[in-house]
Structure formats: structure tokens, C-alpha cells
Amino acid sequence: MVNQLRDTVTLRHGAKLHNRIVLPPMLTFSGKEGGFASDDTINYYKARSQAGGLLIAEYHYVSETGGPCTPPGIPEQLGIYDDEHLDSIRAIASALKKDGNKAILQIHHGGREAMGRAAKGKEVLAPSAIDYSFLSYPVREMTNEEIEEIIKDFGRAAKRAIDAGFDGVEIHGANHYGIQQFFSKLSNHRTDKWGGSLEKRMSFPLAVVKEVKSVIDQYAPENFIIGYRISPEEIHGDDIGYTYDEAMQLIQEVIKYELDYIHLSLWAGGYSAIPHGGQKSFGEYYKEILDDKTKLIVVGGVFDEASAQEAVEKYTDLIAVGRGTLVDPEFGKKIDEGKGDTIVHEISPEQLEKVCWTPGLLRVFTSEGQMGLPPIPNAESIKHLGSNDNFSPSTSATS
């Protein structure tokens, strides 16, 4: 049978999604000092409670050393590194779940990308002590003891997500953050059990998955969801951190822990993107290696019902709609109601009044370069409504 957007999807552990639309994790630029949700954060998520059947909240850093990964001068990235954050994440879970859809919390460690930590004069940890030309601060190589503690922190974060009422967690192994840094030979130069060969560079990601799954098995409801997000290749010209084939080898090990889904973070090319040297799309390659109980999520380039439908027919089980839900928070609801033709495809001053963007999001998407994020369609129409400040972070700001 051909996948349809309004299909009910049952995940491995029993959770049911009422459609194939996913709200992907996207930084809201709205946190308060210390990584706590603000009223702006909660209003943003309330507005997107019907964006899809599966709703993934932005990345939260699991260790005090893991963030914030936002530059100084704008609201902070959110945290989940101690119990003081429980009220913050409870509020996010409640906002996302208010209309009956499943809420997921994305958890990560920033590694070298903890630029907000650096700005506060604190030490930044990474797999290896490399002098990165694109960073304005030094990084220190993690000790074995620090690595082991960070792995435990992922488990502690998963327990907090359970206690806060989330329906699942997504382990963030993408977008050049800590887990990806361990997997990449460009950023992992270690010679101990955490680095060197491809197998050893898999050690940290797999240890995190094992720890999180163990905590879920012990404390979570039976239908609690666990997913893993990956950038399916890391290639920068002649510099190769890992190929799509190596990434798939990692995922073949990850799925042995019986996850509910794998989430591909795609930038260029959208949901039909093809890997370097490949003959098929990333989605098609991954569908060949995933068992029939592990669902695939692909994100990239969907702004209307037709492209979302094409994605689930040809490339993936579930389609994540990022910028499309920034422009129209009711993307999934409109498809559910048979009103896909009313989805708004671009931002405008009139639509801006309806989208519940945080002040930080408005500032970013009206700034020069938009902090390296993919552009919002028709963003020039709202540029006069935002700040004239420019940002110069070291890397793209994304969940």
C-alpha cells in the first residue's frame, strides 16, 4: 500500500501517531539564563501543538559542560542537566501535548559547539584538543572520566524527560554536536577506546544509546518512544568526517537497541537528497538497512501538502516539516482536516502576526545571513520588523 499523510502509524513500542507529519526540533532562541523555558518558549510550542502527529522539542543539553550552544547576546539554549529544569521541561511537554499529539524531547551535548559556555569564560570540552580555525576559543580534550559521566548524563536527562511527561526522547547525533564529533574522524583524533578506527569512533554514540535505552526500559511506560538523529554524511569539500556508508554502518549498530525511529538531518537537497557518490536518495538507502519496526524520518524542503505526500510515498515513513511549520503552525492540522490547500507557504507581515515566533526567532530571521539557517520564504518582507543586529556565530544554530 502507498503511504498516505493521514495514515495512523504504530511505532515499535506501541505509540500511535495519527499522521505522518513530524515537527522537527528547531532552536527557538527563547531560553532564560541557565537554560530555562520562558513564556515565549511555551507560547511557541502551544501554537505548534497540532503541527504534526509527532512533535519534537528543541535540543536540551544534558551536562553542565554541554552548552549553551547559542552565541552571547541572544536568549539561551535550553538545558536539562539538573532537576531544577524539571518545571521548565514539564511546561514544554504540556504545551506540545495539549491536543493529544506525541511530544519528544531532543537531548544532546554540544562538545566544541558550546560557544555560550566559552563566552562566559568557561572551559569547552571536545573529543580532541584541536585548534579549529572557525572557533574563537580553545577546546580541551575530555578525559575518560568526563566521557563516562556525560554518558550517564544522557541517561539522567532521559529520566527527567520521563518524569516531565514527555512521550519520548531523541538522541541528537547530528549537526556537528558532541555525538557527531566523536563519530567524525575530523574531530576525533583520540587513540584510546573512544577513537581511531571506525568501530572505536562508534563507541561513544553506542554507549549513549545503550545508557538511554537502559533508563527507558527501567523507568518509562512501555510505549515510550526513543529515536536517534544523524547527519547522514559529513563532507566538506576534500575534508571527510565520515561517508554515508560509514554512517549507515553506525545506524545498523544503533538499531540493535530496538529504537522506534531514525531521523535524518538533511540540509542541501531536501528530502530527496542524494549522498556524495550515491545513486539513490538517503531515504532509500536507509530504508534498505532498517528493519520493518524502525521507522524513518527525513527532514528537508517541505512547504506544502504535495511535497509532504511525495516524501512519504517515495522516500520515508514520516516527513519532518521545519520551516513549513515556522510559516504555518497548523500545517498538520490542515492536512488532517482535508484543508491542505489552505497551508500558508511563505512568511509575510500578516502571517507573522499568527505564527507565535519568539522575539529571538524574529531577530534571527530578519538578521543578515539568518545565522546560517536555511532561509524562510519571503523573509525579505519582514526584515524591517526585526533587529538590525548581525550575528557571527562559529556555526549554524540548529537543533
Describe the structure.
- Residues 15-339 form the NADH:flavin oxidoreductase/NADH oxidase N-terminal domain.
- This is 2,4-dienoyl-CoA reductase.
- Residues 387-399 have a biased composition (Polar residues).
- The structure is a single chain.
- This protein has helices at 39-47, 86-97, 115-119, 144-163, 178-183, 198-201, 203-219, 244-254, 282-289, 305-314, 323-327, 331-336, 349-352, 359-365; strands at 9-10, 16-17, 21-23, 54-61, 78-79, 102-108, 125-126, 140-141, 168-173, 225-230, 234-236, 239-242, 261-264, 295-299, 318-320.
- Strand 14, helix 10 and strand 15 form a beta-alpha-beta unit.
- Residues 390-397 have low confidence and may be disordered.
- It has a single domain, classed as TIM Barrel (Alpha-Beta Barrel), CATH 3.20.20.70.
- With 399 residues, it is an alpha/beta fold.
- The strands form four sheets. Strands 3-4-6-9-10-13-14-15 form an eight-stranded parallel beta barrel, surrounded by six helices. Strands 1-2 form a two-stranded antiparallel sheet.
Q: Approximately what portion of the residues adopt beta-strand conformation?
A: 5-15%
Number of domains: 1
Q: What is the CATH-assigned architecture?
A: Alpha-Beta Barrel
Ranges with pLDDT <50 over ≥5 residues? Answer: 390-397
Could you give a quick summary of the protein structure above?
The model is unreliable at 390-397 (pLDDT under 50). This protein has one domain (9-351): Aldolase class I (TIM Barrel, Alpha-Beta Barrel), CATH 3.20.20.70.
Short descriptors:
399 residues; alpha/beta; TIM Barrel; eight-stranded parallel barrel; two-stranded antiparallel ribbon; 14 helices; 31% helix; globular
